[in-house]
Amino acid sequence: MSHFAHLSEENYLKALFKLSSKQVKKVNNIALAKELDLNPATVLEMVRKLSDRKMVQLMPDKTIHLTEKGRKKALLTIRKHRLWEVFLVDKLNYQWSEVHELAEQLEHIESEDLVNRLDAFLGFPASDPHGDPIPDKNGKLTQVQLIPLKEVELGKTYIVQSFAETADSFLDYLSKVDIRPAIKIKILDRNEYDQSLIVVINKKQLHLSEKVAKNILVKP
Amino acid sequence: MSHFAHLSEENYLKALFKLSSKQVKKVNNIALAKELDLNPATVLEMVRKLSDRKMVQLMPDKTIHLTEKGRKKALLTIRKHRLWEVFLVDKLNYQWSEVHELAEQLEHIESEDLVNRLDAFLGFPASDPHGDPIPDKNGKLTQVQLIPLKEVELGKTYIVQSFAETADSFLDYLSKVDIRPAIKIKILDRNEYDQSLIVVINKKQLHLSEKVAKNILVKP
DNA sequence: GGATTTTATTTGGCATGCCAAATAAAATGT
DNA sequence: ACATTTTATTTGGCATGCCAAATAAAATCC
């Protein structure tokens, strides 16, 4: 098949972009292997190919940096992913918590034109069903200042924007307690011992663990 | 990638279904290789895998037959292909002539549920933009009413679909006068005495005997 | 019937992506 | 500084799908 050639390239670039955005630790072979759940040998091999293709640059300290070309490809893939997610939720009535896997497949469809038409068909949405912004057709991303719920101030109200975790179990949990992008969340109290939070969502009081609070991103 | 495993299987099954529908000549290795534009060695290899997977049956005379399982998979792939074509034309404003390649990609998206939702979203269309019927979710294809050429109306144009006779002499004759599936045929006149027909194919006038006309199946 | 052409099959090879296990290099602990 | 752990890399191997070229078998021609 000529379609779907270099199928994994987009996944590597997306993962690299995600890691570089988090900038928590340096992005090396191991970190990337962990993110993609692949063998380090596999990742090293592929990273060298990506280097040959001028998608990444291997630094002397072994960290992996996206080139401008790689970054753009990553962002266009993220654009495709998020637009397909909007399609699945808005048009096919999927729940926002169940579209990720399908979008993983759909994002690999090769056609700039198709994704631009899809964008228009969906009414040029600014963000996907998880609240993450959709890059424009040139790969430009308008970032919003996101705050982990863990670090918010007591007594204030925030708007849920997106999440720092994609595990199904996490998304299912959010869905169950009705936490989703664009919903308002008021911070009542913080338990200093275990860093858990008491919040109010839809007029219902809710207790969120530190682990959950760390992965919910809000804006003021 | 776990997605898109056995990616080519669906293409082989589709091609086999297409060839078996035409039933012009026996479906063997060479015919399939020609249809898929692949090396016969490649096709033989894959056909054996499909046989292991119980998708096809290899007959003693070397012809390749779809099993019930293979036929169903082929029809469900055709269903996906045609529904995506409807989507591209109806929703994204593509011309019907430019959607085939995109649908070739989209048809490989793995999700029964997705395609059924797409079907509903499109309003359960009966046929694709090319006029070909869309199989239902069980893989059942409502065949277009086939009419023996003998019984058509004068003055109208029909599309050749298949043949009710498999004798080599008959097929050789068809080949000689350029009658093949999908070709347009216009009915000019009928000789009431011997029930023979005067038709136009490729702008050339042709005289067909009753015996021949009985065995050519067309659709409006 | 023997020669030629066509069809069928085998063989060896290639590219993409993946892994496990072995080894080498670097970082970290004591 | 030495030992241990972590990280990086190499090696050999596997599965999917593809090809060209060689060979074997079958069909067709004369």
TrEMBL record, chains A, B:
Residues 1-67 form the HTH dtxR-type domain. SMART domains: FeoA, HTH_DTXR. One of its GO terms (cellular component) is cytoplasm. It is found in: Cytoplasm. GO terms for molecular function: DNA binding; DNA-binding transcription factor activity; protein dimerization activity; transition metal ion binding. Keywords: Activator, Cytoplasm, DNA-binding, Iron, Manganese, Repressor, Transcription, Transcription regulation. Its main location: cytoplasm. In the presence of manganese, represses expression of mntH and mntS. Up-regulates expression of mntP. Homodimer. PANTHER family: IRON (METAL) DEPENDENT REPRESSOR, DTXR FAMILY (PTHR33238), TRANSCRIPTIONAL REGULATOR MNTR (PTHR33238:SF11). Belongs to the DtxR/MntR family. This is Transcriptional regulator MntR. It comes from Paraflavisolibacter caeni.
